[in-house]
Each structure stands twice: as C-alpha cells, then as structure tokens.
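Before relying on records like the one below, remember that each one covers exactly one chain. Contacts with other chains, cofactors or solvent are not represented anywhere in the record.
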Amino acid sequence: MKKNKENKTNYDKGQIFVKIMAGVLAVLMVAGTGITLVYALMA
C-alpha cells in the first residue's frame, strides 16, 4: 500500500511538471507569434 501512495505522489508531481511545461510552451508560442507579427508589420 505504501508503494501505491508513493507512485501516486510521483505521478502527481509529474502531472504538475507537465502542466507547467505546457504553460511555458504555450506562452512561448504566443510570444513568438506576436513578435513575428510585429516584425512583419514593421518591415
């Protein structure tokens, strides 16, 4: 029973890590798109 609890904790930590990484990648994609639009309009 202890092993199952430890695995669940590790899975939760992994899930949090995945959500943080997904958020970071989403911000980078939006920022990249915005910068590209600004550059295209200025050129």
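The chain has a mean pLDDT of 86.
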